[in-house]
Amino acid sequence: MPDARHVITERLDLSAMSLDDTEELFPIFCDERTWWYDPPGRHIDIEQTRRYATVAAERWSAGLSYWTVRLRATGAVIGSGGVQRHEACSWNLNYRLAPDAQGHGYATELVRAALDAARAADPNSAVIAWIDAHNVPSRRVAERAGLIDHGVRPTPNDGRLRVAYADRALERENDPTRREAQA
Fold this sequence. Notes:
Blueprint: E1 6-8, E2 12-16, H1 22-29, H2 46-59, E3 66-71, E4 77-85, E5 91-97, H3 106-121, E6 127-131, H4 136-144, E7 148-154, E8 161-166, H5 176-182
Parallel strand pairs: 5-6
Antiparallel strand pairs: 1-2, 2-3, 3-4, 4-5, 6-8, 7-8
Helix pairs in contact: 1-2
């Protein structure tokens, strides 16, 4: 398996998130426009972003985690994303870009790289993007990347109802929401 800590795509430089990325990520994570669909999720101080980056960096020891996303052409940080293991053993797909970086296809490029990394690391586990139902732009990204809409379900990590977009059918053996319901 290739080293997923650093991945180069056509226009993006994806590197394992580290604590050193906090200063560049905070303006994205605190921007109200980034969190229009979930205002309470917005980071209100840099310590929230520091904790987020710390957890993401630590999770690389488990194989995969979130990248800091930079434009190859300029080196500018435009967001974060990638995959991490969910409590239910599926891959959680996450992507967040600065408002000025949205609408250029970067999120789809990032998602495709994350799907490739997850499939290389563990092709037997579903990759799921849990998206707020009213977050239509994020849903479009998931659809462009080929993910399947499985409807509104409880998210395994926090129980909130979101739309589950997955890279495969979520049958009994690989549906994290069904495992939790059976427990």
